[in-house]
């Protein structure tokens, strides 16, 4: 999340047409297209964060700037060239680092909280304990994990 991602497309000579078909998990589909005979590119329902990396006449790679969870989905590049038709499909999954906090509960037990991460964080304690992490799933696919340290012996 937050970085740029570049998805490549089959690089062929004598390209007639290139189309990126994007089907996000959330929201409607979008399309980026290029016709070589008219040297014309077009976009339908695509956000400004998605565009050609170098320009479709030089390279059909798609660049996604400031990747967010909303960009998750299926990306298909279709190339029409004199050699034939070529497809490249990607399933984009966005990883989100959790926000970490460490605090003590009302009884003085240490609690580690890894908020809104994707995939869910795995929390372990260096000392032996009987901690059982709890998970809370959010609508956007992220997970908050809470783990409380409870020592086996009272002299820890």
From TrEMBL:
Subcellular localization(s) per the UniProt record: Membrane
Family affiliation: Belongs to the CD200R family.
Protein name: MOR1A protein
GO MF: signaling receptor activity
Pfam assignment, any one: V-set
Coiled coil: none
Topological relation to the membrane, as annotated: Single-pass membrane protein
GO terms for cellular component: external side of plasma membrane
PROSITE patterns: IG_LIKE
Domain annotation Ig-like: ranges: 1-93
Gene: Cd200r1a
Taxonomic source organism: Scopus umbretta (Hammerkop)
Chain segments annotated as transmembrane: none
Gene Ontology biological-process annotations: regulation of neuroinflammatory response
Alphabetical list of PANTHER family matching this protein: CELL SURFACE GLYCOPROTEIN CD200 RECEPTOR 2 (PTHR21462:SF2), CELL SURFACE GLYCOPROTEIN OX2 RECEPTOR PRECURSOR (PTHR21462)
UniProt-listed InterPro entries: CD200R, Ig-like_dom, Ig-like_dom_sf, Ig-like_fold, Ig_V-set
Keywords: Disulfide bond, Glycoprotein, Membrane, Transmembrane, Transmembrane helix
Glycoprotein listed as a keyword: yes
